[in-house]
Design goal:
Blueprint: H1 2-5, H2 18-46, H3 51-61
């Protein structure tokens, strides 16, 4: 979160496409870390979407589906 709020970037945001790529990668890694720390039980318990969406999130996070 601090990296995203910081005015200092690895790649400046005014560079088309690449400027936001570093931010996107940081967010994806943070979400994967949080999902893994919470575990598949917690993710499944709080998931508001479809079962297909849940399966995709668990697969991307490297977690096994409980269903």
């Amino acid at each position: 979160m601090v990296y995203l709020l910081s005015p200092i970037d690895l790649i400046l945001d005014f560079i088309p496409v690449l400027g936001y790529a570093d931010d996107t990668i940081v967010v994806a890694l943070a979400l994967r870390f949080a999902t893994r720390r919470a575990g598949s039980d917690a993710v499944q318990r709080h998931w508001p979407g479809t079962s297909e969406g849940l399966a995709a999130v668990l697969r991307l996070a490297g977690l096994k589906s409980i269903t």
